[in-house]
Amino acid sequence: MSEAKARLVRELTHLMRLPTGDKLSLQAFYAEAQAVLRRAKDGGVVVPAAAVEWISTAEQRAKDPLSSATQTAGLVAALRELEG
User: Fold this and answer.
1) How would you write the pLDDT of the chain (84 residues) with one tens digit per residue?
2) Reported pTM
3) Are the C-beta atoms of 60 and 67 separated by less than 8 Å?
């Protein structure tokens, strides 16, 4: 696995640990997520669609535990594919 892909996996895993339950933490999450996406693009790594969807639905996941579990499972599967 390339260093850029490995970094993306590490950064997405870090994002999974960030809180999103209130407005301030959600804003911080989105700011960090945008930085992750920029670094991936700059590194020439294609971000899996499941990861982009997972990032874009953080607010929904914070409000709906079932949605959170389903979408996070999709992200975990995408991370496994990236790891190769």
Assistant:
1) 789 999 999 999 999 999 999 999 999 999 999 999 999 999 999 999 999 999 999 999 999 999 999 999 999 999 999 887
2) 0.91
3) yes
